[in-house]
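User:
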Amino acid sequence: MSRLWARQRRRRKPGDPDMYEEMVTDRRYAGYGVRELRITRMGSVQDRPQDDVEIAVAVGVLAGGSPVLSSQWNRAPLTLGRFEPARRVRLVEIGCADASHRVLFEGTPEEAHARCTSEVEAQLDRIVMGGSYRPGNDCARCKAVASCPAVPSVPDLLGISGPGAPRRSWSVATGRTYRRCPARAHLEGLFLPRDSASEDNEAAIRGKAVHAWIESRHRRTPHRPCTPDDVPGPPDAWQYAEWSVTGLQARLGIQMIADHALVCPLRDHPDDAEVHPERTVAAYDPGADVVVIAKTDLLYRAAGRWTLRETKTARVPDEGDLLDQHPQLALAVLLARTGALPGDGHCHVELERLTGSGPVVTPLDVTAPDVVSEARRIVAAYVQPWHADTRYPAKPGKACADCPFTRWCPDAAEGTGR
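Assistant: Predicted structure:
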């Protein structure tokens, strides 16, 4: 079919928009009284959870929609063609990565309309009416990002004078991946299906388990400080979420979690604290035309003061240049200094290090010229080569060993294809 299908529905209750317009795109087929929509997924459909709202809306449009004659981007109501009732509708999901497929619905138009239950309608109402802003990687593809109240516009955040490729998002993780292999960074940005990469080493698994456990404690309501006894067990083998640690790493992880209680930010301000674990912060640099994404370990407000805290785990503390070791700290300094973090330009930044010899919290002075200058230098070293690149050449070799995109990369080193 060359045309989209859509249906228009009037307001159901006061406060709703005057009209809902629901439209299906993707692969559409019609003939002999049957309408079929095939939804393509980049990965596999095996074990993929079904979305009841998506299914109900899709089959509802299939059963009661008409061809769209006007542009889908026209702000005026869509112009629809003649409605031709279907005898049967079918919704099929297809995985592009492995040719997997499954039928999500097949039945009469009456059965299709029956999928839109009161519960589904309530969820659809919440989607249509909108809600809170959720900044993240999708912001780069949003046409309203330059005026979005949840994404502050920060000129010269990245220190780049002119736009490069079409608008993209950048994070410290992107910068690190680009250094290893520009092609891998590009494929990550395309959100291609990933193959299983090599397993993390024991220290990395322990670090992720410790982070996940501390995050879960900070998400408790009402908020309360972590305590030395608030640790997982048994001490020689424990698991949290998908992370499982044993032996020395398990005991070290428990020590780090117990040590965190000594420097927990809620320790002195549990009652008036506002806590946001693993909060994603986005800012837009209009000169570079780049959306900067930072996933913070913890943003919290205590005694009226906002602070961003990054937490790192290491068996032995490294007393080198902290900004150089942890470039996300350098980005945090710039975000805090330019007002992209809560606190109206007065957000503090600190590093919590959990080590085998105890916890250390180091504050960073985001107002000090030398700190800001060093942060700019470090961020620029990561972002400028990436921003200027429009070809993303592969660097086959060591980077291929744990790359989850080798099946999509014609330059991948031999023996790494999956």
